[in-house]
Write a structure and sequence with these properties.
Blueprint: H1 2-32, E1 44-50, H2 67-78, E2 86-90, H3 95-108, E3 114-120, H4 123-128, H5 132-141, E4 147-153, E5 171-175, E6 185-186, E7 196-197, H6 198-207, H7 222-241, H8 245-252, E8 268-272, H9 284-310
């Protein structure tokens, strides 16, 4: 019984060591592929911008209760990002608001950090109100980090990443559809399964889906999440949206005929990053709770063992 008693004390420390070694191994995997910084944990900073209500006449609201930025935030938090490293801006997306979001990223992001910028709004709002391509690309290129992730979730989204394709620093830019395509965001009254951006839904799910881990290294990269989610987006659109005549007609009214394509839409990724870019963080704050749980469980086992001995 004394042997069992000592095992009950030693085992938690062994298990804790295993947990730490496992996470460290995941870090080493990243290091071997130039994914993570060799100087320790990499901080991630994210600006999430979403517009649902539009003040100007002639614009259609997108009443999805900011579910797109919420999904993106939840995904990042599940990967270990810190809450105070995520900036959320909702509605009133004018040039000043976007500039302030970029300034926040610039002020907080170091050269080895991850800078993620996500925006959901109308594509025409990007062009005619934000005048995106007139100033944003230059500001984005000047961001001093080698891990930039730009995510555009709008109609004609590729149009707003084309101007940063020549960025000489390491970067990944993702557009939910090509420049001549219309994106889809479901609203509750339509009765479809997915509310909000269909692309956002599948991409954020893929970031923490082990099935998306194509190379089997235990970590889902941005590239893997993009490649895994794209056919799921296309399948949903073809089977759930375009099979409803009313919804298909909305595309026809804009001169777009998705039924003429084998797949639609066509998300775009400009991958200017060497190897793969991963966005999880593995801080000590994750290790400690795991260790506490394991230790507590083993102490319960030990207490029961000693109780039996007394009987």
């Amino acid at each position: 019984m004394r042997k069992k008693y000592w095992m009950a004390l030693i085992l938690p420390f062994c298990l804790g060591t295993i947990v730490f070694a496992t996470i460290t191994q995941r870090q080493d995997i990243g290091n071997s592929n130039n994914i993570e910084s060799v100087n320790g944990w990499v901080d991630g900073w994210a600006a999430l911008l979403e517009m649902n209500e539009f003040p100007e006449a002639g614009w259609n609201d997108l009443p999805v209760n900011f579910i797109n930025s919420e999904r993106m935030k939840a995904s990042l938090l599940s990967l270990g990002w810190k809450t105070d490293h995520i900036l959320e801006i909702r509605d009133d997306l004018n040039i000043q608001a976007v500039q302030e979001a970029l300034e926040w990223l610039c002020n907080n992001t170091d050269s080895g950090d991850i800078a993620l910028f996500y925006i959901f709004t109308h594509g025409m709002w990007m062009s005619h109100v934000l005048h995106w391509n007139d100033w944003f690309p230059a500001k984005w290129k000047s961001l001093d980090t080698s891990k930039k992730v730009l995510i555009i979730d709008t109609c004609h989204a590729e149009e707003f990443i084309n101007q940063v394709r020549d960025d000489e620093s390491s970067h990944i830019s993702v557009a939910c559809c090509s420049a001549d395509e219309i994106a889809w965001a479901g609203v509750e009254e339509e009765g479809l399964p997915i509310i909000g951006s269909v692309w956002n839904y599948y991409f954020t799910e893929a970031l923490s889906n082990s099935s998306a881990d194509h190379d089997g290294n235990g970590i889902v990269s941005v590239e893997e999440a993009f490649n895994f989610s794209t056919p799921l987006v296309q399948k949903y659109m073809n089977e759930k949206v375009f099979t409803v005549p009313e919804f298909l007609q909305q595309y026809h009214d804009l001169g777009i005929y998705p039924e003429n394509f084998t797949e639609y839409p066509h998300p775009v990724m400009d991958d200017g990053y060497t190897d793969q870019l991963i966005i999880p963080e593995f801080p000590f704050s994750i290790i400690l709770p795991i260790f506490i749980v394991i230790t507590s469980a083993m102490l319960v086992v030990d207490k029961r063992a000693r109780a039996k001995l007394c009987v």
